[in-house]
Design goal:
106 residues; elongated
């Protein structure tokens, strides 16, 4: 079972990563989304004397949103890396996968 310090550490790491992802999509730390997320984290803070199930639900939801934001960013980067290159020639495609064209010397 994880200690309270470990839970808080994981929780604050998730919060930092969420805010970083929001910054990356031009929704800096001053955006409404960022303010809402920070408010939710503060609202569900727990102490050693109080155990809050909503805190665990908040952590799960935060990790889900973080996964969505990271995946969206990576997809955008991937699409941009392939955009603009146009189609490859048959020779380039064959070379890329390790095939030789029929007229190439063996």
């Amino acid at each position: 079972m994880a200690t309270t310090a470990t839970k808080l550490s994981a929780s604050s790491q998730t919060l930092k990563r969420l805010l970083t992802e929001l910054k990356g999509i031009n929704m800096g730390s001053s955006s409404l989304a960022a303010k809402y997320i920070v408010d939710q984290y503060r609202r569900f803070e727990t102490t050693e004397q109080v155990h809050c199930r909503a805190k665990e639900e908040l952590q799960f939801t935060a990790e889900t949103y973080l996964s969505y934001l990271e995946s969206t960013r990576k997809l955008k980067e991937l699409n941009e890396s392939y955009r603009g290159k146009g189609e490859r020639s048959i020779r380039d495609t064959a070379d890329m996968v390790g095939f030789k064209l029929p007229h190439d010397p063996k």
